[in-house]
Design brief:
The complex is a heterodimer of chains A (136) and B (121).
Chain A (H helix, E strand, L loop, with lengths): L16 H30 L7 H7 L3 H29 L3 H28 L2 H10 L1
Chain B lengths: L8 H28 L5 H7 L1 H4 L1 H29 L7 H23 L1 H4 L3
Helix pairs in contact in B: 1-4, 4-5
The chains are: A mainly alpha (136), B mainly alpha (121).
Amino acid sequence: MLSRGGGRARPARGGGFELYSWYFFRISGLVLIFMAIFHVVVMHVVNTVDEIDFAFVADRWNSPFWRVYDMLLLFFAMLHGVNGARVSIDDYVHRAGWRIVAYSALWLITVLFLVIGAMAIVTFDPNAFDTVTAGS
Amino acid sequence: MLNIYRGREGMISWALHRLTGLGVLLFLLIHIADIYVINYGPEAFDELLFIYHNPFFRAMEVLLVAALYYHGLNGLRIIAIDFWDRAVLYQRQLFWAVVIAFFVTFIPTAILMLRPVLWAN
């Protein structure tokens, strides 16, 4: 397969998973250019890390818009990144045994981090802590 | 990565794309973990954020944004080459366009990000 100085060559027609992966990489990449850059501009340029604390996140997640936004960003970014790691493993890990180890670790990390990330976004309830602070 | 094939712009852009991608992924995992701590309450979360105020991490944060900007801009170049046949003829010029667009966007961003440090007191 001849690369043309861009990304991987597009897998042949009927490539099944690899073809979907190839398209997903490019589509999620385009989505992430807007979503990830906007996230960086809001969190690191308009605000800086000095302003961000528990109260900041609580205020932000009061809005369903930001919860949905962060959830979409979590899934797009994780799946795009993990797909990159998958292709990298494919390129560098050649021994059959090590490939099984690397792919298993990657799957485990993917599921674990998507679950804890989604849990944080969905279950967060700032009022649960306000009552504690008010009571003490 | 660099000892396998000695290409020019195409090779450099590819190596940087992979390096920045894996770097951003590593940060993403750290970031998911730190946000998870928010459900342990304000004390735990605010205490953890000392990491982000540390000078080393501040530098890493700027480096992260650099990686993200390059990866995004070069990603646009890859998509252009993949979907537009004539772009491959200009892939070298497109790489230098990516480099220029990177500096034009990254330098102001970095200055803004470091404003609390640069103009402290």
